[in-house]
Structure formats: C-alpha cells, structure tokens
C-alpha cells in the first residue's frame, strides 16, 4: 500500500485508540474521581480558589454557569485588547514589532477568545512575545471554556431530574490543568526534539548559499504550538501556521500534531458515554461523526493526489498530486487529510494553503465547517451535535408515534424553538455575511486574490471559518481590512456564544423535566437506525442551506475545470 | 366502526370542501399557518409580476410563463386549503349524522306540557315512556327502562338504564323500549359533548396541540432558512453576473419550504379526531388524541374487558372413592333449577340432559345468602352445592368427615384463579365443581400487541389477589390491582405518574370520576354518570372497554402521520434543488449543465415541473393524511427504519421521477 496512505490510516487509528481510554479519564476528571495528577495540581487549585474567593463546590444551574462563562470571557477580551494595543512598548519584544491597530486587535482577541484564531496578522511581524504569550493563555482558556460548557450537557443527562449541573469554575480549571496541560506538555517535548524553537531571543540572521543575508524569526514556539492543536484552536505562531518548517518540522511532528488535535474532540465523545453510563450512545455519536468525516476526507485525499488537469494539460508532471500550496516534506495525501481534520474539528491550523485545494476539496473543507459537528471543536463539537440530535429526536419520535423524547426527557416546543434558532444561526451568519461581502464590492473586491467563482469561495470560506469558529483561511484573501476585521469579529462572537448558550439551555431545561423511564415503545437513541436519522438530518440541514452558494462557488469552478 | 366506513371523498363533502378552500384564502385565516402564508405572499407577488410582464416588463420571462407559475402557486394554496376543508367536512358530516338523530323531538315535561327538544334547558325534567325518543342527554332521576341505543352505538341489543348507580345516563336520540323514566336534562342546548366536538372540528375553538406547536416551530424554522437562502442568492448571483427572474426566486422558495406537510398539518390533526369519532369516541380536545399515542400504562377493568362477564364450570373433581358418574349426576340434579349462568354452564359441561334422570317429587332448594348453597331434595336424597365452608359445616354437623383431598382441591382451584363449589349428597362430600373466569377470545393477542407497542397493561378487579394473579397471568396483563377500591385506582395512577408515565383508564361510575380526571387519558363510557363523563377527556359511545386500545393506536397514527409527512416533505427538497438550481444558472454558466442530472428540457420547464410537482403532491397525499399512516407494533427502532425507508428514501427518490415525468409533458409547451 502507498506509504502516504498508510501514514494517514496510522494517524487516524492511533487517535481513535488513544481517545477511548482518554475519554474514560476525562469522565473521571469531571466526575470528581481521584486521578494521578491530583497531588500535583490540587495545591495550586486550592491556592487559586482561595485567592479568587471562588467556592468550587457550589452547585450551579445552567443560567449561573452561562453568566460565569460570559463574565470570564469578557475579562479576557478586555485584557487582551489592552495588551495587543500596547505590546510595542511592553517588554519581551526583541523584534521591535509594533502595537496592533484597534480593528486588528479587536479581531485578533475576539478570535482567540472564541477559540477560532482567525489570524489577520503574521506572528513574525504582528506580535511581541508578550502578545504571543497572552494568545497562548487564551488558547488554553478558550478550550477550557468549551469543555466546561460541554460538561453542563454531560451533567444534564447524568441525573434523573435536577437543576444543579455542577460548578463551572471547577470544570473549567480541571479542563485546563488535568486535560489540556498534560497533553500539551507531551506534544511540546516532541516538537522540541524535532527542532521547533523555544527561546526569547529575537530574529537570527543567516547567510544563504547564494550569499544573501536572511532574517529568521524565532521565539517561544514550542510552548505555543501544542495547545494550538490540543485545544483545537489553530492559531499559529508563525504566519503560515503548520506549513512553516519551525512550526511543523517533519512528518513525525505532522503526525503528532494531527493526533493532538483529534484526541480531545474524540475523547469528549467517549467521555460523554462513560460519564452518563451509556457507552453505546457514544459509539452511535462516534460512528455518525466518523462516517461524515470519512465521506469528506476520502474524496479530498483522492482529489489532491490526482492533481490538477489544467496543470497536466500544460505538460507538467502531476504525479505527486496537486502540489500548489503544499509542503513537499508532507505531501499531497497528508495535506488533503489535514485539510479536512482541521476543518471538521474547528482547529483551523493548516499545513497547506486551502486556497490552492482542488475545487471540490475546497467545497468539502467548507462543508466540514458548515456542518461543524463531525467531531467539532473541544466541547463545542458535542454541543453542536446535540442540536442535531434534538432535531432528529423530534422528527423520528413522531415517526414512531410518540411525542419525542431524548434520554427520558420530553422534547417540547420550547426546546424546539431554541434548537431551531441555533440550527438557523449558522447558515444565517455564513450566508448573510457572504452576501454582504458580495454586495459591497467597494470593501471586498480589492482583497480578493481570484476573480469569478473562486473569489466567491474565498469570501464564503472567510465567513464560514468565522461562523464555525474554525480560523483557517482561504489565504488568498487579504483580510486585514476594517471590513473583514469588523464583520468577521461580530460573526465570531455570535457564532461562538449563541451555539454554546442554546444547547446548554436545552440541556438545562431538559434536566429539570420529569424523567420518563424507557419502555419498549421508546425510541432508542443508541442504535444504528437513529444514527442514520441524525446523519440524514445533518446532511439535509447543512446541504439544503448551502447548496445554492456552493453551486456558484466551488461546484461551478469544478465544472469549468473538468 | 365498519358502518362508518364511507369512501374518502363523497360528492357533497367535496363540493363543500371546494367552496371552503377558496373561503380560506382570506389572509386572516392563512396567517395561522406560517408556511402556507409565505406561499400566499409568493402567489400575490407572482400575480403582480404576471400583470407587470403583460404590460411590457423586460427580463422577467414571458407573460405566459409567469402566469402559469402564478396559477400553479394558486393551486398549491387551494390544494392545501382543500386538505383542511375536506378533513373538516368529513368530521362535521360524521358529527352531524350523530346529531341529526336528536333534533326536534317532542319532550313531555313533568307537568304534562309538551315542548320541542330545542327548548329544553339544563335542569328541566322530562318523562319518557316506551316508544319515545329521548329528546336530550340527561340523567334518570326516577325509574328504570330498557333502551335501544343503536342510533348512537350501532349495537342492536337493548341496554338497561336506571336511576341511581352508574348506569343512569341516557343519550338524546336513543329510544325507550319499555317502562317509564323521568330524566333531568344535563346540558344546555348546544353544549353537549357532541356540540363541543363539532366546534372543535369546525376550527372555531380548535387550538394547536403542544406537539403541533413544536412541529410548526420546526417548519417555520425551515421556512426561515429558505428565506435566507433565497434572499442571499440575489447578491451571489449578481456577483457571478447571473440574472435570476422573480418567478425563479419565488419558485425556488416555494419548492424548498416544507409546503407538503405545512399544507396537510391541520388536516392530519382534524382527521385524528375524526378517526376517533368514527370509532365512536368523542374527544374533548385534539390534545387528548395526541396524548393517547404516548400512553405507557393502561388500566383495564377485569369484568367485561378481559373476561366475559360470567364464570363457567370447567372441571368436576370427585372425592376419593366417589365415582365421577355419581358426582356428575348429583351436580346435574342440583343445577336443574339453577337459572344462573354458572348453573347453566355446569349442565353444559356435564353434557347430560337433566330430564333424562327420573326423580320423584323433586323439591328445589333456592340459594340464599344465609345458607350460601342451593340444591334439590327428592325421595330421601338431599343434594347440595355451594361455597366450601357452607357445605363443610353441613357435612361436619352431620358427623361425617370432610375429606382432606377435597380441601386440597378447593385450595388448588382458588390458586388457579377459579371458584370452587363443593357438592354433597346426604351430608357426604362428593367432590368439587371448578368454575373459571373465561378470558375473552383474542384478548391475549391484543395485550401482546400492546406490549409490543411498549404499553403496560394493568387489570383492575375486585377478586382476591390469588385469583387476580392467575387471571392476570392467563390473559397476559403485566400487573393487576386486586380487591380494588376506587381509591386504589387513583393511587396507582398517581404512583405511575410520579414515575413519569402516562396513564389511560376507562370508567363509568361516579366513584371513577376522580381517577378519570387524574389519568392522562380518561375515557368515560357514555352509559356512565354525568360526573364520570365530565371528568374524562373522551367519551366512548359504544361503552366498549377495549376501546382504549383503539384510542391509543389512533393517537400513534396521528403522530406518525405528522412525522412521516414532515420527513417526506423535507426529503423532497433534494430533487427540487437538482431541478431548480441548474435551471437558475445554466444560461449564464453553461458548465453547470453537469448538475442537471435529470436532463430536464429547459430552465423554464425545469422550474415549472418542480412547482407543479410541489403542488400536486399535496392532493395526492390527502388520502394518507386523512387515513393516517398505518401503525405496526414492531418496536420503535424497526418502525423508524421502516418509515425512514418509505418516507425518507421514498421522499428523496419520488420527486426525481415525478419531476422528470412532468417535465416531459411541460417541455411540449416551454
């Protein structure tokens, strides 16, 4: 078998194999059970709670949790604005990079707070090391926020009927210290050995073979890069992200970074099953997600490997695949695989330029973000999937002649209203955002790298990436303009917090309802049949809303090419 | 039920429904259905665009094309309204046929005056004698009568109704066959259950049920998505230098929003109530039918529901040393004059004509509450049969032993749910007759079906726990309440509800009223007291205790019909997209011909075909909406698989075929 394909299979299987025991561990962490890391972190946590005056044992209902979540996010945002707009005059700035403009700082901080990391700057020239460190901190806490939100969902279905859904701060801190930090540490060590820099010294200069002097950016990259993947953030230390030789030096680091970004989203699926003692349900969710994932990945790898017919016609050798915008040390298949992994799970880090993907590969990357629930970002992926489950439960419940229920809780008008608003929000943000961009050529035309269909894809991608909190870009777009900074900034906020609050509200409402014991007439949700139903709902809801715009973008491009 | 099985579309009903479907075009009425209201607006826009093209608008296509789109959209509205109207008309017709029987009958008042039934007020007392039609619903306050209720129930056997007790209600339109009763009017004119039900069907007081509301939200959500899709398509098209006509936008929108289910939704709800009415059950709200589909626990009275009213002899057990022949002879003789069903069943079991024995000077001893035995004396022989302890006393007082094996048999019979009768001859115990409750034929299968539906059945009986347990096992019910008092039912319901289950029960007596009110679905028998009927949320005109099972299935059908048609409607969009999207762009971007997988003739024909398919699928599905999707108790997952296959996959594929066929016809013109 082709070694490049084998490499992909190993990467994916390894992630799944690691995710199962890791999911069990995560369930233990949130269940308040003893874990190996307790002796190390407990004293720190106690001190932290004492200083902050937080009682981490108070039970909170879903509304209190959301207030806590929004409050700490607000604080991080304000601090971030302050730091990025003054970094030029702060210490740890050996390269003398300037402070950010208010528009760019707004977009940057928002996008890191919401776990998106849409980077309208290049790390080498746009940030000081203090700025990088603050963004690294945000990558931890934004991932922790998503995970703590998912725990509210976990708790809502663990007990029969309750309003108490645990303590937000407790879940949040534990997410960071017990889950994100240890995994990041392991990844960082691998990166260090493979040559990623970890230094506070500024640029180095080397004399190339041609005799030119070239400046090379360094910095504390090995600390920054692991959490970018483990927390599914995707914000790179350097401008070209994991295509940069320091950020992703070898095929080994490529594999490690791949596993690092898959493991927590996968493990959260299994953790849900362990936590509520319904492991079969986890397998249903995992299977649906995986089928969707593979349906996007396999064609992508195939298309990237086959190369571009237009280039072949020019008489250029295309056997390595479509290599435009790809790193030769990684190759077309691994890049095609990465492009879907990073879009399904909202990481948004790239190891190739998506702008150069084949037209339908680009469409699959877009679809991955439009669906945003095949694995999805840490924590929030589960929340997005949950909304689809509620819709599927409703329709299939009716189809078997019972008013719909999920895990013993009746789904009624109120929950449907919220689920529908959240399901609507995503297409709304993407389509309206893109429509405005297309309708206002005075702001956007000059930023496009390509005319025609591909230009529409670029705008669509930028808006989709923002709404899905993904952060990757069709990097042809010149996006550091007031229009893109502000418009995507607002899409980021709406696309992050409403899809957290909505599902949590549904879970909180369901948690308080009377528990209905399962009977023979109850529709089991951990079966392949129900999985098929969820898949159909996801496919139809996502495909239906985006089919017209995709037709004018990648599909038209595809038919023009072949 | 069969007597009401008329064809789905009767001429006069269709005529009435057609008129109504135009009346319902009133925007105030259309507004109640968000999906169809958007179609209404789309139709109005198309009318204006058609006129505009007639007066020379450019770039919007020909007048003919626009006008045809307008006509098809208008048809879509009319079809959807027709679905609702025909469901209403059928419900009303059914209710009217019940109501007709009770119109304009003379009522003889207590004071001798005769007035029209329409003038009767609540509280009035009227008198009915043999041959009279009862003018109004009421409660017997004096007397007893046999009544022919066939006008309401279709059951020809007359029933007895008497003052006091649980069988005191009479229904207007039924006929008194014998005796004389005084009846107090129980409802104001126009406020009987039937009147309320008619009002419900007619829509004046029809409220959306909780599930209907939730589904409407889902459908409104889908409608909103497609509003966004269609509105944003304009700037995208402008960017790509594609011009799209207004007709195309509206066609795309109308085809994508779930018009099929949107148009049929209220018809499905009305048809549910109508189906209940056809089963002779009056529902007091649409919600009750819907809840019935969710029932987890069914409380059923033993007598009349699970067992035939009377016990039957099933075995003779002779005592040691007694020949069976001798026992049978004694048994037959003792039952010669016994007119009770049990007595008759004994002779039936023995298979001997009592007159074949020659007995001189027989003297029959009647059953009394004190002796608790009956029998016969002839010559010098005294035969008695009766309750165990009564005969035992008799035997022991005479100084004879009461055999141990008889005692054991007696015990065994009780444990097996039977009733033992001991027989003695000249104060010597001869043996035991075993009487058993007879379980209704076919009832086991019905409970099996209920179990497959996931419903727990509970038998309520006054029997002792031993007997109750036996019958419960034999009939296949899941649980029982023995030696039940009315409050036991109530407590059981409350207990199940506290655990989150929904409970249905049937009752007739005043003492059932609290439990009927407490149950999630309470079906009162029409023969029951007014209090019971007020307390429940359904009234069964047939007084048939097994009706609950049908009610549950009607409820499930209602929900399933909604679910499957929603799935079908949304699945249709896939094919419609493949018809319309290429049609929108093909002229400007010829490369997109590759997307035209149905090879439709031209952009105009493609769009028209999609819109026409969208319109005619509504009337095609009306029969399904009215009859309901068949319920099969095969387990929830299997049912989902089946319906997903038929309505999901079918919903994806059928429009591909349908649109292609329509396109072949339309392509002749466009």
UniProtKB/TrEMBL annotation, chain A:
<dbReference type="GO" id="GO:0005886">
    <property type="term" value="C:plasma membrane"/>
</dbReference>
<keyword id="KW-0633">Potassium transport</keyword>
<feature type="transmembrane region" description="Helical">
    <location>
        <begin position="258"/>
        <end position="276"/>
    </location>
</feature>
<feature type="transmembrane region" description="Helical">
    <location>
        <begin position="532"/>
        <end position="556"/>
    </location>
</feature>
<keyword id="KW-0812">Transmembrane</keyword>
<feature type="transmembrane region" description="Helical">
    <location>
        <begin position="66"/>
        <end position="85"/>
    </location>
</feature>
<comment type="function">
    <text>Part of the high-affinity ATP-driven potassium transport (or Kdp) system, which catalyzes the hydrolysis of ATP coupled with the electrogenic transport of potassium into the cytoplasm. This subunit binds the extracellular potassium ions and delivers the ions to the membrane domain of KdpB through an intramembrane tunnel.</text>
</comment>
<keyword id="KW-1133">Transmembrane helix</keyword>
<dbReference type="GO" id="GO:0030955">
    <property type="term" value="F:potassium ion binding"/>
</dbReference>
<feature type="transmembrane region" description="Helical">
    <location>
        <begin position="373"/>
        <end position="398"/>
    </location>
</feature>
<keyword id="KW-0813">Transport</keyword>
<keyword id="KW-0630">Potassium</keyword>
<protein>
    <recommendedName>
        <fullName>Potassium-transporting ATPase potassium-binding subunit</fullName>
    </recommendedName>
</protein>
<keyword id="KW-0472">Membrane</keyword>
<comment type="similarity">
    <text>Belongs to the KdpA family.</text>
</comment>
<dbReference type="Pfam" id="PF03814">
    <property type="entry name" value="KdpA"/>
</dbReference>
<dbReference type="InterPro" id="IPR004623">
    <property type="entry name" value="KdpA"/>
</dbReference>
<comment type="subunit">
    <text>The system is composed of three essential subunits: KdpA, KdpB and KdpC.</text>
</comment>
<dbReference type="GO" id="GO:0008556">
    <property type="term" value="F:P-type potassium transmembrane transporter activity"/>
</dbReference>
<keyword id="KW-1003">Cell membrane</keyword>
<feature type="transmembrane region" description="Helical">
    <location>
        <begin position="482"/>
        <end position="511"/>
    </location>
</feature>
<feature type="transmembrane region" description="Helical">
    <location>
        <begin position="418"/>
        <end position="440"/>
    </location>
</feature>
TrEMBL record, chain B:
<keyword id="KW-0633">Potassium transport</keyword>
<comment type="subunit">
    <text>The system is composed of three essential subunits: KdpA, KdpB and KdpC.</text>
</comment>
<feature type="transmembrane region" description="Helical">
    <location>
        <begin position="577"/>
        <end position="595"/>
    </location>
</feature>
<dbReference type="GO" id="GO:0008556">
    <property type="term" value="F:P-type potassium transmembrane transporter activity"/>
</dbReference>
<dbReference type="InterPro" id="IPR023214">
    <property type="entry name" value="HAD_sf"/>
</dbReference>
<dbReference type="GO" id="GO:0000287">
    <property type="term" value="F:magnesium ion binding"/>
</dbReference>
<keyword id="KW-0479">Metal-binding</keyword>
<feature type="binding site">
    <location>
        <position position="342"/>
    </location>
    <ligand>
        <name>ATP</name>
    </ligand>
</feature>
<feature type="active site" description="4-aspartylphosphate intermediate">
    <location>
        <position position="301"/>
    </location>
</feature>
<dbReference type="GO" id="GO:0005886">
    <property type="term" value="C:plasma membrane"/>
</dbReference>
<keyword id="KW-0597">Phosphoprotein</keyword>
<feature type="binding site">
    <location>
        <begin position="367"/>
        <end position="374"/>
    </location>
    <ligand>
        <name>ATP</name>
    </ligand>
</feature>
<feature type="binding site">
    <location>
        <position position="338"/>
    </location>
    <ligand>
        <name>ATP</name>
    </ligand>
</feature>
<keyword id="KW-0067">ATP-binding</keyword>
<keyword id="KW-0547">Nucleotide-binding</keyword>
<dbReference type="InterPro" id="IPR059000">
    <property type="entry name" value="ATPase_P-type_domA"/>
</dbReference>
<dbReference type="InterPro" id="IPR001757">
    <property type="entry name" value="P_typ_ATPase"/>
</dbReference>
<dbReference type="InterPro" id="IPR023299">
    <property type="entry name" value="ATPase_P-typ_cyto_dom_N"/>
</dbReference>
<feature type="binding site">
    <location>
        <position position="508"/>
    </location>
    <ligand>
        <name>Mg(2+)</name>
    </ligand>
</feature>
<feature type="binding site">
    <location>
        <position position="385"/>
    </location>
    <ligand>
        <name>ATP</name>
    </ligand>
</feature>
<protein>
    <recommendedName>
        <fullName>Potassium-transporting ATPase ATP-binding subunit</fullName>
        <ecNumber>7.2.2.6</ecNumber>
    </recommendedName>
</protein>
<feature type="transmembrane region" description="Helical">
    <location>
        <begin position="646"/>
        <end position="669"/>
    </location>
</feature>
